[in-house]
């Protein structure tokens, strides 16, 4: 199957003021679109045509860097849009996620601090993750287009810390962006959906 | 941070005047040797003194001087925030320890760990970046020697630029990093790119190692406010603000095996960075170019 750019699941201004419509327009319409376009060019003749996106991401990792970069970013961004919503974030998490965070990550406050620290600790471009590894939640970080799929885990929440994701709204203040992501944007219902699929 | 600069400058003035007065009028190699050992001895004292923090150098031009290629707000954030963070963090990592010239941190930075590689690299790379740019129309052009080396290596200036731009394109340097023109060990020019704040001086670096004489920052923070996703447009516009006079001077140094100290905009600071090479002292202090001094 070839890659396709999904529509945003909300209006471009839905996440303002935490993420502006200007940021979403460039990020979705230009950056994500470029990953889709380049990914399709690179997929042709790669021997991976017809595979699922997850399969392409895993199979190209370490063997076809250009394809991996674009396929990985396509996967990451498809989910990134769904990991956010208007009036998201905060501390009222679905019960199953809240208790998994308590038991696996030492509680919400520690999760919040560790997730933000992961995003801060990813030097350069990359992602901060909440993932399911060996049946448990874990905080991870990856550079550039990588994601937990290629490190034996399943991502259930990810925050894009490429500068393009926050430079218009936060400039160099990556911590402020990460705080706003966790406190005001996370769509915990979608996190729950992925968590249940990854642990069933 | 200021005391290092001030003390350094005072000492250097002494070194310079002593060295000049000793060298003037003496033609014999022996006399020159005396002047040189005195100069390098004093320079050695400077290195003992250099345990102070690295400075964030001022921009050598106004924040809006690179318009329209690079906008004022980008320069403000890039210099005042991003560069400052790298300088602050490498200073933290070296707190209480001897701080050698920034350029001397680069070789072993990857092995020395994240603070050296990321913050030490970022501090050096940005020092270098500000110096290798000049206000639009003020950057001169490549020296004849550099120009013909570019023609020999890449076909023409246009071919060189196209190859450099391709190396910095998002598909080639995916994510954050730099594109460089380097002088390799065998004195050849090469284009390479490095991830994040790595540079070609670092042992074990991705790409072609060498002495950088030109580098383009392709982190998104370098261009996002004006160019957003259009990185290729940024690199194309950046050519208009390259300081070819500086790049040509660095090319000369690189042919002699010397990496840009990129320490600051003042000659005093570049002398501090160069204290280990008598050949460079030689150049800076106006000694006869063919004189040889032991180091
Ligand atoms: Fe992104
Ligand atoms: Fe930069």
UniProtKB/TrEMBL annotation, chain A:
Isomerase as UniProt keyword: no
EC number(s) given by UniProt: 1.15.1.1
Catalytic reaction(s) noted: 2 superoxide + 2 H(+) = H2O2 + O2
Membrane-spanning parts: none
Keyword vocabulary terms for this entry: Iron, Metal-binding, Oxidoreductase
Residue span(s) of domain Manganese/iron superoxide dismutase C-terminal: 95-191
A Pfam short name: Sod_Fe_N
Protein origin, superkingdom: Eukaryota
Residue stretches making up the Manganese/iron superoxide dismutase N-terminal domain: 2-84
Annotated positions binding Mn(2+): 27, 77, 160, 164
InterPro entries reported for this sequence: Mn/Fe_SOD, Mn/Fe_SOD_BS, Mn/Fe_SOD_C, Mn/Fe_SOD_N, Mn/Fe_SOD_N_sf, SOD_C_sf
Essential cofactor(s): Fe cation
Gene Ontology molecular function terms on file: metal ion binding; superoxide dismutase activity
SUPFAM superfamilies reported for this sequence: Fe,Mn superoxide dismutase (SOD), C-terminal domain, Fe,Mn superoxide dismutase (SOD), N-terminal domain
Entry function: Destroys radicals which are normally produced within the cells and which are toxic to biological systems.
UniProt similarity note: Belongs to the iron/manganese superoxide dismutase family.
Assembly information from the UniProt record: Homodimer.
Name of the protein described by the UniProt record: Superoxide dismutase
Species lineage: Eukaryota, Sar, Alveolata, Dinophyceae, Suessiales
TrEMBL record, chain B:
Signal peptide: 1-21
Protein name: Superoxide dismutase [Fe]
Domain Manganese/iron superoxide dismutase C-terminal: 142-248
The Manganese/iron superoxide dismutase N-terminal domain, residue ranges: 54-133
Annotated family: Belongs to the iron/manganese superoxide dismutase family.
Top EC class, one word: oxidoreductase
Cofactor(s), names only, from the UniProt record: Fe cation
Gene3D superfamilies in the record: Fe,Mn superoxide dismutase (SOD) domain (1.10.287.990), Iron/manganese superoxide dismutase, C-terminal domain (3.55.40.20)
Keyword Lyase: no
Keyword vocabulary terms for this entry: Iron, Metal-binding, Oxidoreductase, Signal
GO cellular component, one term: cytoplasm
PANTHER family named among the record's database cross-references: 37S RIBOSOMAL PROTEIN S26, MITOCHONDRIAL, SMALL RIBOSOMAL SUBUNIT PROTEIN MS42
SUPFAM superfamilies: Fe,Mn superoxide dismutase (SOD), C-terminal domain (SSF54719), Fe,Mn superoxide dismutase (SOD), N-terminal domain (SSF46609)
Keyword Signal among record annotations: yes
Gene Ontology MF terms in the entry: metal ion binding; superoxide dismutase activity
Superkingdom, natural source: Eukaryota
A UniProt-annotated Pfam family: Sod_Fe_N
